[in-house]
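As promised in the previous annual report, we have extended the structural survey to additional targets. Below is the entry for DNA-binding transcriptional regulator, LysR family.
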Amino acid sequence: MNIKQVKAFLSVAESLSFAQAANQLHLSQPALSLAIKGLEEALGGKLLTRTTRTIALTPEGDALVPIAKRLLAQWQDAEDEMKQRFALQMGKISIAAMPSFAGSLLPKAIQQYHQRFPNIQIAIDDVLSDIVVERVANNSVELGVTFEPQHSEGLTFYPLYNDEFIAILPNHHPLASQQELTWAALLQHNFITLQRPSSVRKMIENTLKDANIDLTVAFDAHQLTTVIRMVSEGMGVAVVPATCRQQIREQNVVERPITSPSIARTVGVICKPRSMLSIAAAAMLDTLMDAFTQPITQSESAS
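The corresponding structure token record, generated without further manual editing, is:
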């Protein structure tokens, strides 16, 4: 049974005229008769009785009429919904993003997207960068924004910008008078960072290990916003991604480039191959790519 057969049957059942139904459906009468015959064969019995002058529904045909109407209504609803989805007039996307991006730069892209496609619902999940990749891989979300992962089998990574880490200090800190800081100078003071297994913590530890610099952590926290707040309260110093610049300035702390060594990672969108994305998610990917084309650098933070 197919939708064309159902439409043919319902048209004949309502008009009780093959000629009128054929004209309404823009079919020849033989083609209409074949459609009805095919439906009857598929269902296993007669739906119509036909003489040279009259057409009538069998009891089974009469029972099929309300069912056929429901099927056609559901089909029309499905067709309308899919057309709206392909036209980006309805739909929903889910995005996982590391907190430093979700709390600073992502709202800009969301606003741009919403202005273009106001009927698309957007769900945002701010999680650690490693979890972002997991969420995309297990289909919990379509798009993720994170640091470029070392392993992303079956996923595609679209670079957005280069994120250089910066040092942050309390106001009136002794090092605030310097325009650029080294790790050797910074680590003379209480150091605050994220808890393991944060990728930010891992990058800092690995970079310093390669440079033969010992890292002693005075305080650690689960979220970068907490780290920044602790710095603003004068509890110590920290090194964070430059993506956090908005939160840094809101907390009124000092930011400076950090060198010897410097740390930088590429931030981008990770997702399944583009051909596997929904139309709505593909449009969001394009929005993110268009919105973030300039690098987030230390030199910018020093200005």
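The chain is about 45% helix and 20% strand. Residues 91-161+267-294 form a domain with the D-Maltodextrin-Binding Protein; domain 2 fold (CATH 3.40.190.10). These points will be discussed at the next consortium meeting with the crystallography subgroup.
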